[in-house]
Amino acid sequence: MKKVLIILVVLLSISLVAILGGAYWGYQQVLGFGNSQLNVNEQGQELTVTRGMSLIALGNKLHEQGIIKETWPLKVFVKLDPSKAHIRSGLYELTSSMTVNDLLNNLVNGKVKIFSVTLVEGQTIKEWRAQLDKLPHLVVTEQMFDDVLAQHGDDSNLPEGKFFPDTYHYQAEENAKVLLNQSYLEMQANLAKAWQGRAKNLPLKTPYELLILASIIEKETGQAGERDVISAVFINRLRKGMRLQTDPTVIYGMGDKFDGNIRRQDLLTTTPFNTYRIKGLPPTPIAAPGLASLMAAAHPANVDYLYFVSKNDGSHVFSKTLAEHNRAVNKYQRNRK
């Protein structure tokens, strides 16, 4: 009997060691699996997790795509840590340096892929719309700009210049109106700041007029250091009742007819935006001004220039009299000495 008990104890010990050894091996396999890198190419790829998808179903999907080698360790993960099962839906970015643990942490914490878009200063709503239409995973609508205006009580259907140029971020399948609302609010805040701190006695009656002027400054400025001087030229002309005579307004008024050149006939054609033909400011902004142009419109330089002409290198020659201006035009635009 004693020998039988000894044999049983030995067998039980061996079985226990085998079980413990197997468990330890399995534990090491799970750890190794968690630290293993995903099989993703250097360019990376996107992973869509649909609403209600389980971790096991996702594991099968990853295995079918060859991103992970095995699926059984995921089941162990869930058993050991039930919180791992609570993955969130969304679009995730997979990279070649990412481990299984990295992916699980992202899925549990909802660290979805974030996209960015830069709305460039000096561009128009038409140009921005074309840019937004081409972005991946962004929901765009025909009336998105006007819809944002309407949300804030603006039923003018005139969105030009009312959205601030900046870099904005969005998640997959988010409506573009979310980022456009941020852009609108940012412009309102910056415009209010510029208007409240503006120089005294400017010939501008409303913040909207300052916005219009800032958009013209934005389009005319080739070198940042000239913004306040260009602003001063327009302010001086407004004070004297002179037409602004600025080419960007002509181009904007031409719309799709503009082919890259302004002809004499274009300057003589009356449109609401042709400042060679109309007095004062055009009816709306002609582009999206940045903060620097807003501040330049609010704080023109203390100079008495009335004219400027491009030197074809981004800078300008500024003149106080028409005679000086004509000489500069002959030199830099007509190539006459």
Structural account:
This protein has 337 residues and is mainly α. The protein folds into 3 domains: 78 residues, Endolytic murein transglycosylase (Dna Ligase, domain 1); 77 residues, no CATH class; 136 residues, no CATH class. Helix content is 48%, strand content 9%. It has 13 helices and 8 strands. It has a two-stranded antiparallel sheet. Strands 3-5 form a two-stranded antiparallel sheet. α6 crosses α7, α8 packs across α9 and α8 packs across α12. The longest helix has 34 residues. The protein starts with a helix and ends in a 5-residue tail after the last helix.
Compute the gyration radius: what is it? Answer: 33 Å
Low-confidence stretches: 8-12, 15-28
User: How many strands, which pairing sense, and closed or not: the largest β-sheet?
Assistant: 2 strands, antiparallel
Q: Please work out how many helical segments DSSP would assign.
A: 13
Q: By helix and strand content, what is the structural category? A: mainly alpha
* Spatial order of the strands forming the largest sheet: 1-2
Mean pLDDT: 89
Total number of strands: 8
Query: How many distinct domains?
Result: 3
Strand content: 5-15%
Shape: elongated
Which H/E pattern describes the elements? Answer: HEHHEHEHEHEEHHHHHHEEH
Helix content: 40-55%
Roughly how many Å apart are the termini? 125 Å
